[in-house]
Structures are given as structure tokens and as C-alpha cells.
Amino acid sequence: MTFINAGTLGTVPDRRDEVVALLTRRDERLRDLGCLAYEVGTNDEDPDTVYVMEVWQSAEAHQASLQDTSVASAIQEARPLLNGEFGGFRFEVSGSPLRGSDDGSTW
Known about the structure:
Layout: E1 3-11, H1 16-23, H2 29-33, E2 35-41, E3 49-56, H3 59-65, H4 69-78, E4 82-92, E5 95-96, E6 100-101
Antiparallel strand pairs: 1-3, 1-4, 2-3, 5-6
Pfam families: ABM
GO molecular function: monooxygenase activity
Keywords: Monooxygenase, Oxidoreductase
């Protein structure tokens, strides 16, 4: 079942753009791991926060991706730029008015 992981990453002051650059580096390997979408954004009202929305084929694919060498390396690279404040939520998709019920079809 399609899985969503959406959250916020608090950044060290004035380091937000570095985190965005890191998270938006092209990485086709994510597709192979089961990532259907990975969107990164900002909001000028919260200048030290990065917003991330991930869509995965399943919760298991997301969890397994964390063991991938390139994913683990990116996480390690980002750590010094983060202030430890994280927020968000996760859920399995039930359906969409654009696709109908979650029948496993891709985005």
C-alpha cells in the first residue's frame, strides 16, 4: 500500500538553503528503492525549517531505503546542518479522487 512520510526538519540558523540543496540533489537510485515522489520546500515565514513530503510504494520500502548506502550517506551529510527539531506524520494512502482507491497504481 502506498505510504506517505511528510515532515519538517529544523535547520541550524542560516543553513536552510544548504539542506535544501542536499535534499534536492538528483538521485535516481531512490526510484529503484521504491520512492514515487520526494518533494522538498520552504516557507519564508519559518526561515529555519525545511519541509519534505515523500511518497513510497510501501512503508517497508521506505524503511529499507534507510539502509541504502547513498541514503545513509546523505543523512550523515545533513546531520550537522540540522538543529534536532523534527515534526511530521506518516500514513498509508487509502485512496485519491485523482486515482480512486489505492490500487497500487503509480503516481
